[in-house]
């Protein structure tokens, strides 16, 4: 009976079995560096939820920390609500990212996580994961690596907002998206923005009008081709330079 329950839990809608061992983005997620036996133990505690539709939330500010969420597909935005009642976006999470780390310190989620498109996630019960990581050094090390990545991302964002002008901020944002898509096996040169220009502006501290104007300027310069939400990087060297990053091949 236990084995049957595990098998059922590993089936997503559509009847396709999903295992950590077979996941295409496992190298970005918790399973990275784990051996087969450790992967089986991790796989047995993970719950594969039904698709989350655009606009649905994974959790809300003040919710008790019960699970971390590994994104299998889609995009999730994290945000808080200011004292003035305004939304402030704090991050955009892609396949392979884990959401919910910032709730560990107080055992409550400080903000919201909302799907920007239909998304698939793996729900990982935190107490069980914490217990398992105490028994598996490789898992504990990987959790620390992922947390370190979160801290580094926050530091980069502070630098972005404090030192760069509007043009450099948007260039850095697009450059970073390109890099992240490449890490996931997608094209670094052509991709679709799953977030609105309003969301991008909110995240970067810029107005929608500024985002639209800058995209037009980037296109006119030959650096990008913009068609609705679709971006094509035409001059990666120029984008890298404006973003303050070393040149990387597209």
UniProtKB/TrEMBL annotation:
The keyword DNA-binding applies. This is FNR family transcription factor. It comes from the Bacteria. InterPro entries: cNMP-bd_dom, cNMP-bd_dom_sf, Env_Response_Regulators, HTH_CRP, RmlC-like_jellyroll, Tscrpt_reg_HTH_Crp-type_CS, WH-like_DNA-bd_sf, WH_DNA-bd_sf. Pfam families: cNMP_binding, HTH_Crp_2. Residues 30-113 form the Cyclic nucleotide-binding domain. Keywords: DNA-binding, Transcription, Transcription regulation. Gene3D superfamilies: Jelly Rolls, Winged helix-like DNA-binding domain superfamily/Winged helix DNA-binding domain. The keyword S-adenosyl-L-methionine does not apply. SMART domains: cNMP, HTH_CRP. Residues 164-237 form the HTH crp-type domain. Global transcription factor that controls the expression of over 100 target genes in response to anoxia. It facilitates the adaptation to anaerobic growth conditions by regulating the expression of gene products that are involved in anaerobic energy metabolism. When the terminal electron acceptor, O(2), is no longer available, it represses the synthesis of enzymes involved in aerobic respiration and increases the synthesis of enzymes required for anaerobic respiration. PANTHER family: CRP FAMILY TRANSCRIPTIONAL REGULATORY PROTEIN (PTHR24567), FUMARATE AND NITRATE REDUCTION REGULATORY PROTEIN (PTHR24567:SF75). NCBIfam families: PRK11161.1 (NF008365).
